Amino acid sequence: MSALVRGVLAVALLAPLGAWAQGGMPPFMQSMERHPMTVKVEVWQPGGAAKPAPAGLPVAIEIIAGGSKISSYTATTDAAGEATFAAVPSNPKVQGAITYALHVDYQGVRFPFTLTGTPGEGARATITVTDVTTGLDTVEIEHGAIELFPDEESLVVRHQLNLYNTGDQAVDLGALPGGGLKLPCPEGAKHPELHDEHDPMAEVRGTDVFFKGALLPSSLGPPASVQLVYTLPYEDSTYSWEQVMPVPTRGALVIAPQGRQRSQKVAVPLELQTVGAYGAVTISDQGPDRTFAVLRSNGARLKAGEPLRFTIHNIPAPSHVARWATLGALAAVFGLVFLGFKRHAGGEARLSRAHLVAERDRLVRALARMRRAVERGKMSQARFEREREAITARLVSLYKALDRLESR
Q1: How confident is the model at residue 164 (pLDDT cuts 50, 70, 90)?
Q2: Sheet holding 291-296, edge to edge
Q3: Lowest-confidence range among 78-87, 149-158, 174-183?
Q4: Are 181 and 247 in contact (CB under 8 A)?
Q5: Percentage with pLDDT > 90 across the chain
Q6: In what order do the strands lie in the sheet with 271-274?
Q7: Which of 35, 134, 285, 405 is most buried per CB count within 10 Å?
Q8: How far is CA 101 from each of CA 61, 111, 223, 274, rounded to the nearest angstrom?
Q9: How far apart are CA 188 and CA 186, in angstroms?
Q10: What is the DSSP string of 162-186?
Q11: How confident is the model over 74-99, as a mean pLDDT?
Q12: Whether 150 contacts 187, CB under 8 Å
């Protein structure tokens, strides 16, 4: 692949600039220069050789400024695999802010390149593409970063997946059955969203993400990345992560902050534990509120279909004992209010005032405890509002029952 690497990295358009065009135009247009340019397209062959690309391939050069495309120029290859552009512009006054992107469409795949330097008279560039396959034998995935943040009733996960192609041919994942490579979220995940919702290469379907683009050989550039955000609802203080990928996993990085985050009143230091001796967990201390538990795979790999597993501990799940105690108290209130009337033989209703007062006082104390929990950061404001609404409704029923009893 050395010839291919050199072909890609050596695309430079360094040539002297000609005279400025003058006239009654705006300053930006006055300084524009246009140059003929030739792009030679080669197809890499096993063993490092290359042959001219076939005629008729579409080639495009785009002018990028400020991250946006401001113009585009197209041509097609001839029998020698060369595409000729009549006038590629440059602007000496703002050349530092201009970049040139080039792409070639070959066998249904778009191969992107970045041109370096400034185009001049007679500039030439040689780029190399590869044949295309749909086989997954050379595709690998990496969990580039799994960041965990505890929130009310769920963990918020920011997840970056990197896709690598270790082979010599581009892999057209969009041609797979289903229209892409299926990348499942871990079990229990809810509401996945792409970080870049306008990414044309990725699509969320249910709780799965599909990568629909072509995966170029790693020697042609960086891996393809998909970034998404989703939640993991929890009911217990421990969550068992399990995620299965259709291709081998070459590595993983899991990060759990130990310090207090912006949305937290107190720190919630999640604990990570490996499963099946996959990697190791360390603590990274980078200053106040910048301490992290980090799980690194340390070179361990997983086969296709072999799940990534680890456990997350110290999740701030509510106590089941407290939950059932609250439900029991509310049930008792219902029983006292709606079933507490006892009928004598003459049909006279009687209600125990002492029981009503006891339940009223118990719920008032529960509200006070919840307020203190909110102040200490042990309970979120949203959860407090929901609990207060339910308890307040029960208190209203209690007060009405007491009023009826007092009026008898």
Answers
A1: very high
A2: 190-194, 224-233, 154-165, 139-151, 249-257, 291-296, 280-285
A3: 149-158
A4: yes
A5: 44
A6: 239-243, 308-313, 271-274
A7: 35
A8: 6, 11, 18, 43
A9: 6
A10: EEEE-SSSEEEGGGSTTSSEEEEPP
A11: 88
A12: no
Q: What is the CA angle 177-204-310, rounded to 5?
A: 95
Average pLDDT of the residues in 103-125: 86
Count the helix, strand and coil residues of the chain and give each as a percent rounded to the nearest 5.
Answer: 20, 40, 35
Give mean pLDDT, residues 158-163.
96
**Residues 276, 172: Cα–Cα separation, whole Å:** 34
Q: How far is CA 110 from the centre of its chain?
A: 24
Host H or E run for residue 243: strand 239-243
Residue 256 Cα distances to 151, 230, 237, angstroms:
13, 15, 15
Burial of residue 186 (number of CB atoms within 10 Å: 0-12, 13-18, 19+): buried
Q: How far is CA 113 from the centre of its chain?
A: 25
Backbone angles phi, psi at 372, to 5 degrees: -65, -35
- Would the pLDDT of 19 be above 60? no
- Report the alpha-carbon distance of residue 182 to residue 205 in Å, rounded: 9
pLDDT for residue 21:
34
The span from the CA of 36 to the CA of 64, in Å, is: 19
Q: What does pTM read for this prediction?
A: 0.67
Distance CA 220, CA 131 (A): 13
Q: What are phi and psi of 78, to 5 degrees?
A: -100, -165
Give CA–CA dist 373/4, Å, rounded: 63
Q: Which two tokens stand for residue 17?
A: 């600039």
Tell me the two tokens of residue 323: 């939950």
